[in-house]
Amino acid sequence: MTKYLKYAPGRCFCSDNMKSTQLPSSLLLMLLLLEVSHVSSQERSRPNFVLMMVDDLGIGDLGCYGNTTLRTPNIDQLAQEGVKLTHHIAAASLCTPSRAAFLTGRYPIRSGVAGDGKAGVFIFTAASGGLPSHELTFAKIAKQQGYETALIGKWHLGLNCKSSDDHCHHPSIHGFNYFFGIPLTNLRDCQPGHGTVFQLHKYLPYSTLSIVLATAALLHYIGVITIRRGLILSLLSLLVVVMALIAGFIMVIPYFNCVLMRDHRVVEQPFAPENLTQRMTQEAVDFIERNSERPFLLFFSFLHVHTALFTSAAFRGTSSHGIYGDAVHEVDWIVGQIMQTLDRLRLRENTLVYLTSDQGAHLEEISARGEVHRGWNGIYKAGKSTNWEGGIRVPGILSWPGSIPAGRQVDEPTSNMDLFPTVVQLSGASIPEDREIDGHDLMDLLQGRAERSKHEFLFHYCSTYLNAVRWHPQNSSSVWKAFYFTPNFYPENETVCFHTHICFCTPDSVTYHDPPLLFDLSRDPSETTPQTPATEPAFHSILAVIEEAVERHRRSVKPVEKQLSVGNVIWKPWLQPCRSTFSQLCQ
């Protein structure tokens, strides 16, 4: 039986019963050149990846999606050079679960990054929840394939588990070799004068408190009970103390939550927004330059256009839509800087570029001064935190000159989860078979080899609750969408939840529908008129097919730890990251 031995320079070992022979130097050189050429061609066939995700950008905010009042020439050019997706869906309508789905290609419910209360995202840096380490991200797989990987910008998928520096949810655990950005999100609290995201007064049970106080006063008045003056004074004193503690906590929130990190080190606490966008842009340019000779994956995760809004001095006052429009202009400039860098380094034709938003525009965003800081979702209903189209239909632009045709538009349903299998396969790896992957490789659709999306069904969760289902039947142009419940808007004649700053999914905040509300998005993309048995003869059969799909889907969802449970989202002082010069005060 032939035994293959180790290679030694200049010798050919064939088997135990054959003597080694000296190769001619010219033949050896030819073989080495062929090997190097083979490796080099492999490297060239694998593209670089530049994946850009804007925060809370509305699909209607970009010129290539119909906006005529904001200037986004760089993003518009990116769309002209590649493919524009018009039916691109975020897997969740809030930052944390949407980003978990984007990175893993899986519904957030599968990784546990979905809550069952009102906390749909992480609101403290010092919380113990996060994207579990056993989840596979496209960055982790690309790194295994030899890619240099970086995340610049917002993470929002956890940091620590048991101590202030274990970094069990840090981007490095999930495949990013380099991290420069914020582990949480850009909050109002991070800028003086912008108020606080912790608007506790909106969530107090005023009606219940009023009933309790009125009942106690009445019972005291008619003599059923006696409320002593000392008890009243004690309760008032307790109320004052609690309010003082809450006010103090809100005052120091910027030191807890507004943290800027480079890899595992805190470099600013709290971070200063002035020139932060410029610094992050330079970090992206530097990363591309450092790795121009090897495969790389860059995830640029914008802090824009989430509030508290800020822009660099060069962009202030450049739009007719206040600071929100100015921030959109700066987003476009950043895209231009990254694209110019790729062009300058002659990497454009070997780089797949993707631009999207993590969900729709946040329509309830009004500043502490009463200024409207919100984007535009075009013709689509409602916005962030809802599964109406305005909350989850987002921009989707992909460009790769020479590999993806220019100027194409794809109207088929696609998902931000689709980037996972697309990146994995283009990097030379295989799709994991040990877990459910809900995304589908986009390349056939982008290159025109397929006319139909592989997504027959898409399931839309609001936290852990299945909220709606989208069905694109085979051999049909219809796209049906069934809602099991919808948020209770306030004011009722608008599509917003001003009373709570964001719409919730809890039973007390929604209206259930039996039978479900049914829309045909191919005819009614604005979701204005639900179908009925009178208007749609196949009403009941459509719902029956959807219900069968729901049952199959539910059987595929395995129980996992809820990363957004109360215990995993509350502030835990022992998990608080601190800058070295701030550590004593922090402790």
How would you portray this structure in words?
This protein is of the alpha/beta class and 587 residues long. The protein folds into two domains: 49-187 and 258-582, Alkaline Phosphatase, subunit A (3-Layer(aba) Sandwich), CATH 3.40.720.10; 200-250. 30% of the residues lie in helices and 15% in strands. The protein contains 15 helices and 18 strands. It has helices at 25-45, 73-80, 95-104, 108-111, 138-144, 206-221, 229-257, 276-290, 322-344, 389-392, 419-426, 443-446, 539-556, 566-569, 583-586; strands at residues 11-12, 21-22, 48-54, 83-85, 88-89, 148-154, 178-182, 260-262, 265-268, 296-301, 351-357, 396-399, 408-410, 414-415, 457-462, 465-471, 480-487, 510-520. A ten-stranded mixed β-sheet has the order 9-8-7-6-10-3-11-12-4-13, sandwiched between helices. A four-stranded antiparallel β-sheet has the order 15-16-17-18, covered by helices on one side. Strands 1-2 form a two-stranded antiparallel ribbon. Strand 16 and strand 17 (480-487) form a beta hairpin. Helix 8 runs parallel beside helix 9. The chain is globular and about 105 Å long. It starts with 10 loop residues before the first strand and ends with a helix. Mean pLDDT is 89; it is low at 1-21 and 36-43.
